[in-house]
């Protein structure tokens, strides 16, 4: 029983220490030529902030380039909803929806699973598209 309680505690503790949500990603953002660390500490935080990120302390001047890059930690991209209604223009019936909706959904990198509805105004149609 003690071993089980100890194991259970370890699992719960590990779960509490895991980061929530998806992590961001590192991205090199172009910058004017940076000569040294002091100059990078002045320029890179603002360059990263302007691009929507935060400077991660790294920078470099790629060989053969007259410019430098600042290493920026970017936030994770927003999650898209699994299901999305997309305006498809006038749709009068199921037959027309079967012709139009697969193409509408494909243009959004989604798939059509047979659902559609009239738009709120009643003049158009909305295809219900799902993430692949």
Number of helices, counting only DSSP H or I runs of 4 residues or more? 3
> Which structural category fits the helices and strands?
alpha+beta
Order of helices and strands: HEHEEEHEE
Q: What does the largest sheet look like?
A: 3 strands, antiparallel
In CATH, what is the class of the largest domain? Alpha Beta
Contiguous low-pLDDT stretches (5 residues minimum) are 1-22
| Overall strand count | 6
Largest sheet, spatial ordering of strands:
1-3-2
The total domain count is 2
Q: What share of the residues does DSSP label as strand, in percent? A: 25-35%
* Shape, per Cα inertia axes: rod-shaped
Query: Portion of residues in helices?
Result: 25-40%
Find the CATH topology of the largest domain. Answer: Dna Ligase, domain 1
CATH architecture annotation name of the largest domain: 2-Layer Sandwich
Distance from N terminus to C terminus (CA atoms, Å) equals 45 Å
Can you give the mean pLDDT? 83
Short account of what is shown:
33% of the residues lie in helices and 33% in strands. It is an alpha+beta fold.
Description:
It is a single chain. The chain is an alpha+beta fold and 132 residues long. The protein has two domains: 22-78, Dna Ligase, domain 1 (2-Layer Sandwich); 83-131, Dna Ligase, domain 1. Helix content is 33%, strand content 33%. It has helices spanning 2-17, 37-50, 94-107; strands spanning 25-31, 54-60, 68-74, 83-89, 110-118, 125-131. The strands form two sheets. It has a three-stranded antiparallel β-sheet, with helices on one face. A three-stranded antiparallel β-sheet has the order 4-6-5, with helices on one face. Strand 2 and strand 3 form a beta hairpin. The chain is rod-shaped. Mean pLDDT is 83; it is low at 1-22.
